[in-house]
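User:
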Amino acid sequence: MFKKILVPVDGSDTAIAAMARAVALARAFDGSVTAVSVIDPYPFIGVGTDLAYGQEQYLVAANNEASASLDTAREAATRLGFDIEAVVVEGHAVHRGIVETAENMGADLIVIGSHGRTGLEKLVLGSVTQRVLGDAHIPVLVVRDLGAAGAVSRARRRGRSRRNRRGPARPAPRGRCLRRTPAALRRAGRRIARHPGTARRRRRAAAAACRCR
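Assistant: Predicted structure:
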């Protein structure tokens, strides 16, 4: 079913987990796996000779980092007894480079890791995975960050456990005023005065006079 699988890598643990999942699928469907690392060739704009020098230094560093990420992915696949292909592509947007690479190689599936960013961090930094999901025309398998997902799951379980230990909320006992305001006490005194009798009747009258609930 999936003969050509593309795996974007950046050297992170999540990318390695995505590679392991892709290798398992490729082995099950007798397919191949290609790892890709995308670099932006023009990350900044400037003028003069300083720009050329800075651009050259950036490209060298970016290519070295991409090569290191691909080497890490290749080693992970080798440990699983599987050979993969590795390519470095250039693109002004990482998600566009991933999608275009998948289209050019005729990939059947993209397996990509998600770092589990949420809230403001996700809003500011954006999500390459979300953009790939929006632009890709082939199936995309997202491998979540196990550390972040596990932390969220553990926090939810702890919250449920605390609620279960506390049990359901108990209503305040009748006749006990939660807010002993002077007005409430005066109302209770008047009601008790109108209902002379046993102590039980007086307690009931005091409870009826309390309007806190």
